[in-house]
Amino acid sequence: MLAMLAIWITGSWALAWAHQVSDDVHYGNPRTYQVDAVVGHGTDATTHPSHFVAINLNRQAVVFEMVAGDPAKSISYVAPIYIAGDGGDKAPVTLEFRDVNGDSKLDMIIHIHLPAQEQLSVFLNDGNKFRPSTNNDKIHL
Hints:
Residues 1-18 form the signal peptide. The protein is α+β, with helices and mostly antiparallel strands. The chain has one helix at 2-27, and strands at 32-37, 50-56, 60-66, 74-82, 93-98, 107-113, 118-125, 130-132. The radius of gyration is 18 Å and the shape is elongated.
């Protein structure tokens, strides 16, 4: 019985360590994620999409948008969520773009991948930039 307990504890530790190393290799430290998307801001198009960088900076999800790939036209967005909990400083932050309110514009969903759960923050596309969603917005995830 004690041997099984020791194996289970060692296995759990090894799995957590492997997950941490995988995230270090994939997202770096601080956790950083990049993606290109055509969201209808400025003159972005498939030939020159907007570039997005999401980062977990001191337990705060921050997204930088370079409109149409132009760093001079950068906009920053801060998710209104403090990334609390165990491992919150190492939680990867990723982005997803899809229409969640039915206005035919791609909205931005910020995914914060915590070990025990995933947190979401939704920013709606107003045609020029994103804005944080409110309780009055009708969102369909």
